[in-house]
Design goal:
It contains ten helices and two strands. It has 217 residues and is mainly alpha-helical.
Length: 217
């Protein structure tokens, strides 16, 4: 056991890198930037230092290496409000106001003080960029199934879309499950009662309509 511990200490001494500030990560960031996608994890959720360092790494990847979007473990509708804000398409005046749109627990995952500097930095970075060059901020969680569908329907209603009925078909398909995702999950997995096609069509027409009108994502 003593030999094993000594070997471990020796490896740490040989391979570890000192870390005092973000500049100490330049070598790591440079190597990682060769990948198409970079995944930034964390040992614990909600640790302030992880959010801060991850934000600084993201800035360098965007500014120095041309990465164009951030995808986080967060609800799509709430994160899309952030996306609109950083691209200059929001009526909110500060990131803190945008983060008030995070309602699903745990809200502190993204609605926290540490993420605010990154959001404001993204907004400033995007300010003079062409629409197609602006960096986006997106949520990839699927917990907000009903909220996401309601957002699609609300948008199609707002623009008087002729495809509104297709979105309503998706909503209707989920009515038997009373907004309980576990019931839908069991029905889809064991009974083959899936609303996949209805949701796919609704999402497709949402994207087509939005691109046609606004030309932005």
């Amino acid at each position: 056991m003593v030999i094993k511990i000594s070997k471990t200490i020796e490896n740490i001494q040989q391979y570890s890198q000192p870390f005092h500030d973000i500049e100490d990560l330049n070598g790591l960031i440079e190597n990682a930037s060769k990948a198409k996608y970079i995944l930034l994890g964390e040992a614990t959720h909600g640790t302030a230092e992880f959010y801060t360092i991850r934000g600084e790494i993201s800035k360098k990847l965007i500014q120095d290496h041309g990465f164009t979007f951030i995808a986080v473990e967060g609800d799509w509708p709430s994160c899309y409000e952030v996306n609109q804000y950083v691209k200059g398409h929001s009526n909110y005046s500060h990131a803190r106001e945008v983060l008030s749109q995070f309602h699903r627990w745990p809200t502190w995952m993204w609605a926290n003080e540490e993420i605010i500097p990154l959001i404001e930095w993204l907004k400033a970075y995007n300010f003079d960029k062409k629409e197609e060059d602006k960096v986006g901020f997106y949520g990839i969680d699927v917990y907000s199934l009903w909220e996401s569908m309601e957002s699609i329907v609300a948008y199609l209603q707002k623009i008087n879309s002729p495809d509104l009925d297709k979105a309503m078909q998706a909503i209707t398909c989920f009515h038997p499950y009373n907004k309980r995702p576990e019931q839908y999950g069991m029905s889809a997995a064991f009974l083959g009662e899936s609303c996949r096609e209805e949701v796919f069509r609704a999402s497709k027409f949402y994207c087509i309509e939005k691109k046609a009108i606004h030309g932005r994502g």
